[in-house]
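Components:
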Amino acid sequence: MTTLSCFIAGLPKAELHLHIEGTLEPAMMLRLAERNRQPQPFPDVETAEKAYRFNDLQSFLDIYYRSTEVLVTEEDFYDLTLAYLEKAASQNVRHAEIFFDPQAHTARGIAFATVLRGMEQACTQAHRQLGISTRLIMCILRHLSEQEGMAMLHEATRWKRWITGIGLDSSERGNPPSKFRNLYREARREGFLLTAHAGEEGTAASVKETLDLLHVDRIDHGVRCMDDPALVEELVRRAVPLTVCPLSNVKLRVFGNMQEHNLKAMLEKGLHVTLNSDDPAYFGGYVNENFTAAAEALELSFSDIVRLAENSFNASMLSIVQKKIHLLELADYARRPAPGN
Ligand code: ADE
Ligand code: ZN
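Structure:
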């Protein structure tokens, strides 16, 4: 391990952009397919891994939705969530805000309660045994209608104790934020914290429209905002967090390679960037691999890395007191001499 990856490994951090369905590793996918007597999406782990070559967001989503079909029972959602939380805790993630896509499951006849109960049990157990805290963010699939999304929102209001936020994911192209204006108005009225994917395959205008029409608390990805200097200024002034996912962006060809990623430029502009793994089973790494890949390719400094971790706690849905506790631990860690020095 290099000094840098060693420092990243020990760094206390929060993960704020993580789709639980995107943590379905090929081995678990095959195991669940067998357990549920479902058709195997892929004959073996090697074939699954070989299929994970994407040209863009849509080619990824096609495989992602197909693979989720192995998730059927409460136990499946529990196993999936616990496996992620164990991995996250091993990477010194102290707090995780987890997206889930209920419409990908209810459309197959899986009850909303099955998904939520499985996830919630894993979150409770991981908190007790590993000390990692969690929040759940229910994502609305933007390729479906607002009316269908609204039905999910009504379901979520019955489970408010367990669901903290509402997000928007799936195909950005052709599904603008304006399509979900009423849904976000209602979600805000219900007291949910709001986030939405924007400026991933979409443009800076998509980020601007997400801010202006959906009144979100943060933006997922948002990397395209850099094409509009006035928008960058507004995001900095309003301290809007952006949950950036570098390995995902390279895999989905948002950037040609990691050296071309604009994360460092975003930090230099003063944007409130956080670093996350998105769909780690598909994109080649969990949060620490994202930190290391970005830090090496973009020559991030130790203070850039600490700032990303600070931003992750500040941008979270935790209380002020909880944030403070994590930030104190982080400051203490950052003060220690870097490993190897
Ligand atoms: N669903 C899962 N991962 C996603 C991503 N990166 N963008 C949009 N929708 C998603
Ligand atoms: Zn995402």
